[in-house]
Structures are given as structure tokens and as C-alpha cells.
Amino acid sequence: MSVRVSKSKKWGFLEVDIRVRLPDGTRHRERTKSPVQSRSGAKRWAEERERYLALHGKAQPQKEVPTLEEFSKRFIEDYAKANKLKASGIAAKQTVLEKHLVPVLGKKRLNEIGDYEVQKVKRHLAAMKPKTVNCVLTVLSKLLKVAVDWKELALMPVSVKMVKAPDPELPFYDFEEFEQLVEGAGKAGADVLAFVLLAGEAGLRRGEIIALERSDIDFKRNQITVRQSDWQGQIDTPKSGKTRRVPMTARLGVALQAIRHLRGPRAFYQRDGQLISANTLRSWMQRAQARAGLPLTSGVHILRHTFCSHLAMRGAPVRAIQELAGHADLSTTMRYMHLSPASLNQAIRLLEQRPPLRGEQGESGTPPQENTSNSQ
Fold this sequence. Notes:
Blueprint: E1 2-7, E2 14-21, E3 27-33, H1 39-56, H2 68-81, H3 87-105, H4 115-124, H5 130-149, H6 175-188, H7 190-201, H8 206-211, E4 217-218, E5 223-226, E6 229-231, E7 234-236, E8 244-247, H9 250-257, H10 278-292, H11 302-313, H12 318-325, H13 330-334, H14 341-349
Antiparallel strand pairs: 1-2, 2-3, 4-5, 5-8, 6-7
């Protein structure tokens, strides 16, 4: 049994030479063009073919491998939707496929996607941020893995390598700026104030604020239960997939008490009784910023960054921040920990924990006494 990969001198493509003993004892040799035109991928394909022949003998003509465009429809319907992924995640995958992958690789059969095809995708996304590029590559890699699981491919045709992405800068308000924003929000209205405090002092995400119901606010226990999120009108679980409970600060409790109404089960409504949306929160944010004299932005997530940053700066343990913020991965929380002075101070204090040197004061705080008695 042996596998050899070489480049055809005549045609210029990679070909595989497989020699194997079949189950009936006869020797068999196959020499053919590799469906994967990278040396590592061709070798993996040939080794998989070799194992198949050794176990099952000569294979029957295989069914045609689908193109990426053909398989993308099944990927969304039979994988993403069938597994009940979050609505926002399904929409993101559809956007990646429609805008980036299908236009570049749609006509390629899945087993023809190699290193060069991945590079074509990267070139297509050259103007995008590294994080966006990696999101697209992650969808491509997952699609190929699903195709392997469903036996559309014998093995992964390529190892999809991500691009280097620097750690993102996480903007946040310092303590003074946040107090300015809270003061401005109070001038803008009770709803605006409650929204700013929910995001900045309880860490709720935009969709979690929109979906928050009055029954989720426990004024007796002084805590909020974050159990659902709203994405474009669709109710789903929070991003981490888990319910969490967040204690309320005193002024957040007062602010939420001030917006009681009879319009429905939600905590927030527009003045005409309609549900609030992402646009509503962006408008409230700008109103608070304007009243506070801060630069106007459309971003709401800066309040959640402020929540995590302030906890880290106050010395909160990393696990507590993770639980309060609802981060599924601890690495997400760690992005804020460089702001914590406690961790750095504690590290330096370790240098002071050394045994006393000869001649230094002992544990009692008194210098060691010399023996002045006469020797016997």
C-alpha cells in the first residue's frame, strides 16, 4: 500500500498514484488527477481513497459533488435552521454566502476548493477589516465540515486559515464621562435614563433591553433576570444561550420604578404604544449625548463596554464580570482586564514577599540579639 503525489509534466496539475491490495487479495493501482490541487489536500484525499479501496474494493462511480452555490441552500435550511441556530446567526450566514462566497466560489464544486480558492476569497475581501474576513472564512470552513459530515465530501478539501486580526480597541466612557451621560439622559426623559443605566450599570445588550419585560425586574430582590433577546422582532435567548441574573444599582432601581405603565408586558414602549427597536435606542442614545455635551454617535454597545471596563477598573474578579456580562467565553471578558489595577499591583507585591536577610529585623520586629553572656 502506498500513496504518491506528483505534478503532471504534461498538464501541470497534481495527480495521485495509489497502490493498494483489495479485499480479495488482488493488487490495484489508480493514477488520476487529484480533485484537490494542493499537495497536503491531495495527499489527504489519496489516503482516504486508499483506505476506502482496502476496505471496500473498487468503488462504484461516485455521485457528483455539489457546487458551493447548490450546497449553500442546504447548509442554511438543513443545518442552520434545522439546528435552531439564533436568528441573527442564520441571517449572518446567509449574508456571507450571498455577498461573498457564492459570487467568488459559487460555481466551484466543493472538492475543488483548495488553497488558491481560499486566497481568492481573501483577495475579494481585501478592503474589509480582518474580523470581517475571518467571519467569512469561518462560514466557509463550517460549510465544508458539514459537507464532510453529510458524506458529500470524503474529507476536508482544504484547511481554511484565518488572517491575523489585532485585538480590537473597545471604546468606553470613563467615570466622569459616564456621569455626564447619566445626567444628560435624565434631562432627556425617564425612558432614556433607564435605558442608559440598564446598559451602563447592568450590562444588558441592545436586544436584551428591547425584549426586557416588567416581570423580569424583581424590585424586592433588587435584580433583573435576563432571559431573552429581540432581534428584528424575533424573540430568542440571550447571545450566550443562558439566562443570567444581574443585581441592580440603587439608581437603576429608581429609574426603572419611574417608567411603570400599562401599555403591555415590555419594560419599554414608544410614546404611541409601539414596541421600541434598535433605531429607538440609537435615537435615545443621541439625545442623552446631546444633553450631556458629548460627541454624538449611533453606537449603543459602548455602554456595555463601559459596564465591563468600570467593573475591571474597580477590581472586580474576572469570573464575576464574565457572569454579570453573560460572556460565553472567558477570553471575551479578558479583553477588559488590562484595565484592572488590582492584578498589576498584586503581581508587584509578590516581589516584596521575601525572607529577611541576615542582620535584618526578625518576625517580631526587633533586631536579633547578640549573646553577651560569659561563656562557660
